Amino acid sequence: MRLPSTAHTSRPWRIHEVTGDFHLEDVWVLPTPGGPDDLHHLVRQITNGRNDKTTIDSPAYRALFAIRWKLGRWFGWDTPRTGVGARVRTLRDRLPADLREVPRGSDPQSVPFSSLYQLHDEWAAEMANRTVHAVMHIGWVPDESGGYRGQMAVLVKPNGAFDTLYMAAIRPFRYVGVYPALFRAIGRRWQASADERRRG
């Protein structure tokens, strides 16, 4: 379920300190009910990128990403010179001193993001290509049932007017073909790992 922007902006996340020039694109509920200390399990799930029966199985999802990667090869959107540390500086350079001293967290294996920092209730990772510099922020928040759940925010900084239009053009495809399949897979993985979480 998509949430209003205030679900992210009203919370005292540390990511606000380094993304003042980024635009908040989306905020979403993640189907990951848990306890107050379970964020590290969700981060491990996201970063492991394990291929198993709960992997995303949507043909639309796979087709959209196949098209996107093909376009990226044609137009040179995803070359090393367009990424973090080349076209843009890493946001780690902006982190306050105390955040630079905490564990950075693992980098995701299945998507081209690099971890920025990991705290008890939030984790952030960044990526960049020719079109955008983006941040994926995962927060761990209280839910209506008295438990906790994950919440994902996507922050973006398009690389010029064309890329702002590109982000607007792909938004419907993300809402219809990408996010529903992604969140179903996250929920299946979360349910499948319930026993593992209980064991610690």
Structure explained in plain terms:
- There is one protein chain.
- Strand 2 and strand 3 (122-128) form a beta hairpin.
- The chain is globular, with a radius of gyration of 17 Å.
- The protein has 200 residues and is α+β, with helices and mostly antiparallel strands.
- The protein contains 6 helices and 5 strands, in the order H-E-H-H-H-E-E-E-E-H-H.
- The two termini are 28 Å apart.
SSE diagram, text form:
Blueprint: H1 6-9, E1 23-29, H2 39-48, H3 59-75, H4 97-100, E2 114-118, E3 122-128, E4 132-142, E5 148-158, H5 161-192, H6 194-199
Antiparallel strand pairs: 1-5, 2-3, 3-4, 4-5
Task: Provide tags for this entry.
single chain, 200 residues, alpha+beta, five-stranded antiparallel β-sheet, 6 helices, 36% helix
Low-confidence stretches: none
Radius of gyration: 17 Å
- Portion of residues in beta strands equals 15-25%
- Rough outline: globular
- Largest sheet strand order: 1-5-4-3-2
Distance between the termini: 28 Å
The major beta sheet can be summarized as:
5 strands, antiparallel
Beta-strand segment tally = 5
- Helical coverage, percent range: 25-40%
Mean pLDDT, nearest integer?
Answer: 85
Helix and strand element order: HEHHHEEEEHH
User: What class would the helix/strand composition place it in?
Assistant: alpha+beta
Number of helices: 6
